[in-house]
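pasting for the record
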Amino acid sequence: MDLLELFFIALGSAVVAYYAVKLLLFSRMFFPQLCFPLSKTFFTSVGEWAVVTGASEGIGRAYAFALAERGMNVVIMSRTKETLDQVAKEIGETTGQIVKVMVTDFINPNIFSELKDQLKDLNIGVLVNNVGVLPSFIPCKFLESEELDKTITDVINCNVKTMAKMCKMILPGMENRGKGVILNISSGIASIPFPLYTLYAASKVFVERFSQGLQAEYSDKGITIQTVAPFGVSTRMAGYQQINIVTLSPEDFVKNSLQYLRAGDKTNGSVCHIFLGWLLQSIPLRVLYTECVLHSLQDYVKKKTAQTASRAALENGRNT
């Protein structure tokens, strides 16, 4: 057996071993409670309070409930006081935990000093940076966005600046105590450069890279910083799509995603969404970027939007 033959045998063995390890690591995602266990007191052990932005509905509301159910007091933030008050009442009555309401519009860049004053005396163990804006639910090209200058500013202020500012505000306390959890909510579509959602997807890429950098900087301080990148979740931002194996309810998604808290610096939050992330990255971009595919995406979202509006109108008719 000559050296060249030995080289190819060794190379083939290395490739097989590499993919065997990757398969083994992926298989852990099917058993999160076994492979990434959390104690029942984990969340209360990192701090007394959780702060959740964009908590009046959807994923943010679900995180606020889930963390309160795990024994944490909760600060919920959004711009609609009436809705926040209702959420606070429901959480308090359901869990018995204390809920503080902070009404704020994260599109406004000058709110953070006031928030800092209100949060400074709290022992904050968990921060969920959930608030975000989608420029347009119906996908469109960048230059076709309505009020483009305002849209650019709003997306940067809400999706990018708010996350960085909230981390700047709360991370020092976690570092001093040597414990804490920060969950930054991204999106599955940030897995690739995503046309027709270009600005939104790009803002969520920032969320991922920022979070991964912070985790590398502060993991030795006992702090967990993780990007959570869901695909389909039935929220207002997603047009309240029907719940199925791909599109989860906010409550089910949050329940699943918390099981992956120790699974690394990024998770898609559920086995199905993890598979969708792999699939999206496996499809050649030149296929995804064809005019046919992009038009099909637009038509699909428009159709789903019309179906949702029709169902809502029907339900309203039944309730009147």
